[in-house]
Amino acid sequence: MIDDADHAEPTLLDAVNLAYNPLLKPAQRLACSSPSGKALLPPACDKVLEWHQLATHWLGNDPQRNWIPIHHPLYPASLLNLKDPPLLLFAMGDLSVLALRSIGMVVSRSASRQGLQTARDFAKAFALSGWAVVSGLAEGIDGASHRGALQGEGPTIAVLGGAIDSLYPRCHEPLAHDIVQHGGLLLSEYPPGTAPQPAFFPRRNRIIAALSDGLLVVEAALRSGSLITARVASELGKPVMAIPGSIQSTHAKGCHAMIKKGALLVETANEVIDETSATLAPGRKSFDVLPLPTEEIADSGVSEGALSEECRQVLSVLDFERCGFDSLVQRLQKPADWVLSALTELELEGWVFNEAGNHWIRAK
User: Fold this and answer.
1) Coil, strand or helix at 307
2) Of 59, 276, 305, 321, which is least packed with CB atoms within 10 Å of its CB?
3) How many CA atoms lie within 13 A of 101 on its CB side?
4) Is the Cα dihedral 91, 95, 97, 102 positive or negative?
5) How far is CA 132 from CA 1, 62, 91, 279, 288, in A?
6) Ranges for the Smf/DprA SLOG domain (predicted)?
7) Which of 353, 360, 356, 357 is nearest to 115 (CA)?
């Protein structure tokens, strides 16, 4: 782990005081972050001393737990382009991941099942191509993106909206553990002991945008935090891409608005990789990967030609927009149990999704 012996200035106490002292205004913090500005730091108050104690306890002697002050050699240079870069980062996992070329993946939390599958497939394809995946460990597509990267045996970075020792949502604690165990990284600008708060999550998004070499929005409502991330990425000169959806879907409205404003419409993982590669900063690294499959996104189920005749009939009348079960029965002019049996087989093979209200949607 990084310790005070590795860098004489600042000490952990100095870094905590700089980042969190309530007496300092944002502009003052940046001025005090340079070696010459250290003398301007006010004395550590009781709250700073408490945070320092909590941070020291959390770090312990675990080599996977680290703190990275601004201007340290391991601090991500891309974060310095932000108007308000985090002055101190806490990390758990492999710090070398920060040097890898990466693609950020964001979305609103209320994702559709089709969106979740798309995120997993794209993230897996990125990992198989040697790209790390950056996301926010939130419910929905964030979690699906991290899982997809792990399925592709690639590292992934989770930028948190709270302290690393106060993971949110709690249901993603096993996922966070898997990320660290498989060579990824958990990253937070908040000190140990800090509970997640609603205001933290939009601020977390700027770090995702800055860390990523390109940003992909899989699904987004019109008032989604994903749009904040996309705006920051665009301001930083990063390519911003969006996957289109149905004009009737609220999950696609934000993506369509972004595309109208200049985001690149993409349909495949290779398009995202090509666009991001075109503006990749020098020095960004890859990692060893297995050869990419012939098909960019490998299907886990059987091919359409190998499906039963009943399943192929259902697919012939089911498209990529939600369709109620009763409507399917009417279109097919078949008994309800016949249709349900075919849908069940198709769902097991990954060809369809069953959404709330007994609605069905084609997945591929």
Assistant:
1) coil
2) 305
3) 25
4) positive
5) 22, 24, 16, 16, 11
6) 68-275
7) 353
For the stretch 54-58, contacts whose Cβ atoms lie closer than 8 Å and that sit 24 or more positions apart, written own/partner, are 54/191, 54/192, 54/193, 55/12, 55/16, 55/90, 55/191, 55/192, 56/12, 57/192, 58/90, 58/164, 58/165, 58/192, 58/193
Using DSSP bridges, classify how beta strands 240-242 and 214-219 pair: parallel, antiparallel or unpaired: parallel
Amino acid present at 83: K
Is 66 among the domain residues? no
Burial class (CB within 10 angstroms; exposed 0-12, middle 13-18, buried 19+) of 69: buried
Whether residue 329 sits in one domain with residue 253:
no
123 with 218: CB under 8 angstroms?
A: no
Q: pLDDT, tens digit, for every residue of 90-113?
A: 999 999 999 999 999 987 667 787
Residue 143 lies in a domain: yes
Domain count for the chain, please give it. 3
Q: Helix 253-260 and helix 225-235: axis angle, to 10°?
A: 20
Let me know: does 164 contact 157? Beta carbons within 8 Å: no
Which residue range(s) make up the domain with 37?
4-61
Strands (E), 145-230: 156-159, 185-188, 214-219
- Whole-model pTM: value is 0.81
Residues 185 and 324 grouped into a single domain: no
Q: Is residue 346 part of a domain?
A: yes
Supply 324's token pair.
């109620």
